């Protein structure tokens, strides 16, 4: 009896211990949703709460793969592998390397996976408030510019950022790297937005008091003083953690300019453009589907101060107390998106939500014509994958070889006819 009781207890405990799977190459998971977090609190909120969703235990499977961040070495999945989560690390370099490692991992087939990029951010008080959730169509790498120390600027210049190849601020860059702007599916964003309407967003007294400081700034700042809500507006990526009215306004203008007046900057981030560049490159190769990406950010702090504070005080001295509600609402809104995709998988999301707008990078790498920048570099055609390009090159070489063989045969026949060997008469 005692042995039976001990065995039963041991089996119960073991059932709740995540297993690290040293999986053979044939054991491949095909997640329907992959949650991408940037640092530990953003990932932990999912693990603390996911079990309550009824969608499984997000920590059931623990998977390792080479190339992940030294700080975040594991990928977590539900037992069925339907939903997975990875923390990629903060900043553009960390996030890009971790995403590349994930997509190249032999553990996963990501061709039908929806990626939910879910992180906290600085928030533009003209479009949202602390604790608000933003779903983006555009992500703009705003700091990819020349920069002059503001102490050296002409007195009437609004910013020290100058687009590449230009001489003044707020001109369209004439040199592009390809990562300046990404556009995501507006139809998928709208579907995600509809799912989030079921979310109960949390708030707190401390951020309410800080929001109230923006009440005197006029109608254009009306969103700042309201409770958290879900909004549709766009993200700005920069490894620089910027704060202040002039910088925020400059990047607001950059976002509008680089998206042909369509984008509206409301959330600042350090990782999104880096992650999206990885996803574009592997979408070209057929590893992922770029139409299945949702970029979600929640506001943890305002990107510019209220009238009563300086930029420096706002950044270093003021306690906006928005971190905890931003983290909480990341999950509160995000879980409704995950649930919505899973609940409607068979009818809608398995086959995909067809985008009505252009999607991809500023180069037009995935085909189509960007509605920003200088247009497609391929005339609207999708870039060939490495395998397709190699096959085309090999085919071209074969064709050339066949051509050379034919010419050589004709030449040999001619030489035999005229008694020529090696260019000399026989």
From TrEMBL:
GO terms for cellular component: endoplasmic reticulum. The keyword Signal applies. Residues 1-22 form the signal peptide. It holds the Pfam family NUP. Keywords: Signal. One of its GO terms (biological process) is nucleoside metabolic process. Coiled coil: none annotated. One of its GO terms (molecular function) is catalytic activity. It comes from the Eukaryota. InterPro entries: Nucleoside_phosphorylase_sf, Pur_nuclsid_perm. This is Purine nucleoside permease. The lineage of its organism: Eukaryota, Fungi, Dikarya, Ascomycota, Pezizomycotina.
């Amino acid at each position: 009896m005692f042995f039976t009781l001990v065995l039963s207890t041991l089996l119960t405990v073991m059932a709740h211990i995540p297993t690290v799977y040293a999986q053979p190459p044939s054991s491949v998971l095909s997640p329907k949703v992959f949650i991408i977090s940037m640092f530990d609190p953003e990932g932990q909120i999912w693990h603390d709460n996911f079990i309550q969703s009824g969608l499984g235990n997000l920590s059931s499977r623990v998977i390792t793969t080479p190339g992940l961040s030294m700080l975040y070495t594991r990928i977590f999945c539900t037992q069925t592998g339907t939903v997975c989560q990875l923390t990629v690390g903060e900043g553009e370099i960390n996030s890009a390397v971790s995403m590349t490692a994930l997509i190249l991992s032999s553990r996963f087939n990501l061709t039908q996976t929806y990626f939910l990029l879910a992180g906290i951010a600085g928030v533009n008080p003209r479009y949202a408030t602390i604790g608000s959730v933003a779903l983006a169509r555009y992500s703009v790498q705003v700091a990819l510019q020349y920069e002059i120390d503001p102490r050296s600027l002409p007195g009437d210049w609004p910013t020290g950022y100058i687009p590449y190849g230009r001489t003044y601020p707020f001109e369209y860059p004439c040199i592009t790297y390809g990562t300046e702007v990404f556009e995501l599916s507006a139809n998928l964003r709208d579907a995600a937005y509809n799912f989030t309407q079921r979310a109960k967003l949390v708030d707190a007294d401390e951020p309410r008091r800080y929001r109230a400081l923006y009440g005197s700034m006029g109608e254009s700042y009306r969103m700042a003083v309201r409770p958290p809500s879900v909004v549709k507006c766009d993200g700005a990526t920069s490894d620089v953690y910027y704060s202040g009215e002039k910088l925020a306004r400059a990047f607001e203008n950059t976002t509008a300019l680089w998206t042909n007046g369509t984008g509206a900057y409301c959330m600042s981030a350090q990782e999104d453009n880096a992650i999206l560049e990885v996803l574009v490159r592997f979408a070209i190769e057929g590893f992922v589907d770029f139409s299945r990406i949702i970029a979600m950010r929640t506001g943890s702090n305002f990107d510019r101060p209220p009238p009563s504070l300086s930029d420096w005080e706002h950044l270093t001295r003021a306690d906006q107390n928005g971190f905890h509600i931003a983290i909480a609402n990341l999950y509160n809104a995000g879980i409704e998106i995950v649930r919505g995709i899973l609940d409607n998988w068979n009818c809608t999301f398995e086959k995909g939500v067809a985008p009505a707008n252009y999607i991809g990078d500023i180069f037009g790498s995935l085909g189509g014509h960007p509605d920003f920048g200088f247009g497609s570099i391929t005339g609207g055609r999708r870039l060939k994958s490495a395998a397709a390009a190699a096959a085309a090159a090999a085919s071209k070489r074969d064709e050339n070889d066949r051509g050379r063989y034919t010419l050589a045969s004709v030449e040999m026949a001619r030489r035999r006819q005229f008694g020529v060997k090696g260019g000399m008469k026989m």
